Amino acid sequence: MITRTFAYISFILLLNASYAQEHLLLFKGERIELNGAWNLTMYDFLSYDEIGQNKESVLIDVPSIWNDVIWEGGKIGAYGYGTYYRTFVYPRNLPDTTLAIEVSEISLAYRLYANEKLIGQVGNPGIDLSHSSPKIDHQIFDFSVQAGDTVTLIFHISNFEHKTGGMWYAPTIDFESRIINKFELNRTIKLIILGCILIGGLFQFTIFILNPKEKFCIYFALVCMSLSMIIVTRGDLTIMDLFPGTSWVTLKKTLYLAITLTGPANALFLREIYPKFYHKKVIDIMAIMAIVLSLFVVVVHPSITYSIVPWLHGYNIIIGVYLLVCLIQAAIVKKYGARFLLFGYTAVFFTLVYDMLSSQYVIPSYSFEMMYVGITIYIIQLMILLSSRYLFALKGKEELSNHLKKVNKELEEMVERRTKALKDKNEIIETKNAELQKAIKEKDHLMAVVAHDLKAPLSSIQGLSELMGSKLEGQSAEFNEMIKKVTMDGRAMIENLTELKVFEQGDYEVKLKPFDIRELFEQKKMEYKTTAEKKNITLESHLDPKQTLVCSDENIIGRIIDNLLSNAIKFTPKGGEVYFDICTESKNIILSIQDNGPGFKEKDKSKVFKKFQRLSARPTAGESSTGLGLSIVKTLVNLLRGTITLESDEGKGATFTVTIPV
What we know:
Layout: H1 2-19, E1 25-26, E2 32-33, E3 36-42, H2 48-52, E4 58-62, E5 70-71, E6 74-75, E7 80-89, E8 97-103, E9 109-114, E10 117-122, E11 139-145, E12 150-159, E13 172-175, H3 176-210, H4 215-233, H5 238-242, H6 248-273, H7 280-299, H8 302-305, H9 309-332, H10 338-359, H11 369-469, H12 474-504, E14 513-516, H13 517-534, E15 538-545, E16 549-552, H14 554-571, E17 577-584, E18 588-595, H15 602-605, H16 629-639, E19 643-648, E20 654-661
Parallel strand pairs: 1-7, 15-17
Antiparallel strand pairs: 2-13, 3-4, 3-7, 5-6, 7-12, 8-11, 8-13, 9-10, 9-12, 14-16, 17-18, 18-20, 19-20
């Protein structure tokens, strides 16, 4: 017992003399992180026995890189190989057990020894590029210890492709069961977080596919994707659990791509949520730069991309600060959800910044769990914010639906009331209409009877007047002429009323058939030439028949010409002129009758085609005027689906133009 104690003390003293006292760690039954000073021997893979022979070494801090370490008068640089080693003591007061060492990323290949025993390996370290196989992974290796053991941990490390070499992260030692349980717990929690983030992103992506107008959904999915890529490529490298065959090139490209996308993805999302606080052009520039950098990361080898990683980190920090300032402004004015989201964004921003700085060895390394907590808080808050927006929209939709139902019900009641009122009014109108139709029929019957009964005595009076005319002289002859004129006017009015009634009530059947327009023109010219000459009026006529045979109702066209010509002669003073023109085209007959009588005043033009209108112009030779002639013309033109227009200036005559389709 004394001998063993002496030997143990002697060994401790020897170690203190050889490696410096700060190199020796004492395991006290608690998890210890193997950071701080390690011994490094470059360009040699030392065995346990060679380490005991006091081989040349330098002290190097872990975690760090060996690029700037001085070895044999010069800097090591990125590429090379060497041996890291450090010793710890397992106390006598602890039972024999199995310890475990948790190792994260270390260069591109390493072997791990506990004294002379090989306990683990990642990749295949070698003395040059042709003899080494690169790989990056997060592993746990176990080894047995007994009470009082002194264990030297030896790493054979090589790097011939990455821009940095050395122990990038410090290993940790603990009891095997405890370190594995913690690892499994952390990995389970991490996978749950990762699953929730991916499900949330997939859900929002599906919404975007169904409704592309909701752009914030695709940006949220992009945020989820970029943060998921950070989770699986940092810390315990979950990507290696999910895809064990992942190469270090793919792993690093995934990490650098996540670094490139995270800031701009958040910028695009927050701009959609709070568009008034994020300048569109600034965010667009960020997005364009992210696309360019992403293409660079995908195409270029990670060893080259690593050289711009500090710039990527700086770029993301600038974006993060800009987004934080804008979000604070939104929170100050109490925009919906801004204050709530500010806490989560601040958490993820500072944890990611801390991770960026520690990965570049600007500040000491830290536990990756901080970053996962920040990401989790931020994503949960984003999901809650989006959910509340959906609920708010659904609530608004429901309120709008209820309001529309209420309005619709009120409209239905209003329509029902109006329908009932219209129905009542319609019944009244139908009753009045029936009464009106009855009155019209009675009126027509009465007018027919009166016309029939008046026509016979007026004809008799006219006949007697004509018989008496040859035997009367002086004043009696004048009175007789007056009686004759009155009876003739009466008969003309009765005939016009009867004719108008026939045309207006549709009792006349329009008969369309071919006829020679030239014959009709010559006939009417001869008829009215004599009438015009009695008033010393010149009747100028012109026919321009592009086609002589036309199809229409010859009788109606004749009646239109009669009324217009007789009117023109009646209102033209003695010695005046009347122009009668007919022109035929492929689809129309155009009648034009012009006089140089008194014309029509502006107030008369709107009444000229109405019945029984008293107009300013009077016949020039005392002729009778019933006020029905132009009304009959308008009715006849309508029967033939034609048009009639009037051009007239007071004192300058009038021109009636009739266009009839054939």
